[in-house]
Design brief:
248 residues; alpha/beta; Rossmann fold; 7-stranded mixed β-sheet; 10 helices; 22% strand; binds S-adenosyl-L-homocysteine
């Protein structure tokens, strides 16, 4: 069981697999006023940077579930590096339907809300692991400006314009689901550059090392077109943020 190989190639050198920079991740942890010993569940935990740094900085106890074997291994290595392996656990597997044995104070899904079939489904899935009064974290794209055409939405890796909302609409949707938005930290274009542009060097090095791989043609095509495409579309149209929610 694994995610499509292209992601394991293009994001193999990423510690954070979303447009957040390390300082944004730290800001989010500070914004949540995490107390030492708080249990955190992270569905789609990637390479574990959120749980590992929050374990180090705020003393949280974390569990992450991720379908990428590579990212999960990287998360375990990172936990060792930061000296928090006794506080965090990383499980390789499908997080769809995953509910923790013990209730948690923070239940998160950052940049992987397809795991619960969309934002609302993921909020409901996370709620099954959350203690009363706990915080749900959702990391999700939104439109900074509406794409004028469906073709432009597709250039932003959206299936259609309706896949994402404008920021006020996204915040309102949490309210409609019965949740207060109690904090948010938004990515900026520098963060998007760190996420997207970091893939280019990784892909280039991978291509140089694996010219005969069956995916080499696809990776070459992506590396050739992605920088211009990204600058013209996603960088201008797409925002991303993490929203902290508490049930009303
Ligand atoms: N939250 C992490 C990773 C975001 S990228 C971070 O912010 O760094 C999306 C992640 O979802 C990837 O790590 C991918 O491997 C994982 N993923 C995709 N489908 C999944 C599934 N069904 N179950 C668990 N993880 C999944």
């Amino acid at each position: 069981m694994d995610i499509p190989r292209i992601f394991n190639i293009s994001e193999s050198a990423h510690r954070i697999h979303n447009p957040f920079t390390p300082d944004k991740l730290a800001s989010l942890g500070a914004a949540l006023r995490l107390e030492s010993g708080t249990r955190v569940l992270d569905l789609g935990s990637g390479s574990g940077e959120m749980l590992c740094t929050w374990a180090r900085d705020y003393g949280v106890i974390g569990t992450g579930v991720d379908m990428s074997q590579l990212f999960t291994e990287q998360a375990k290595t990172r936990a060792d590096e930061l000296g928090v392996a006794n506080q965090v656990k990383f499980i390789h597997g499908d997080a769809a339907g995953y509910v923790s044995d013990e209730k948690v104070g923070v239940a998160a899904c950052l940049g992987a809300t397809w795991i619960g079939g969309g934002v609302i489904g993921t909020i409901e899935l996370l709620a099954r692991s959350l203690r009363t009064g706990g915080i749900t974290l959702i990391g999700e794209p939104y439109w900074r400006q509406l794409p004028p055409t469906e073709a432009i939405a597709k250039e932003c890796h959206a299936g259609s314009i309706s896949d994402f909302l404008l920021l006020p609409e996204l915040l309102a949707s949490f309210g409609h689901a019965g949740y207060d938005v109690v904090e948010m930290v938004l990515a900026d274009q520098d963060g998007w550059d760190r996420y997207e542009a970091a893939k280019w060097l990784t892909m280039r090095r991978w291509l140089d090392a694996n010219p005969d791989d069956e995916l080499a043609k696809d990776v070459r095509a992506k590396l050739t077109s992605d920088p211009e495409r990204y600058a013209a579309y996603a960088r201008e149209y797409l925002g991303w943020g993490v929203f902290a929610l508490m049930r009303r």
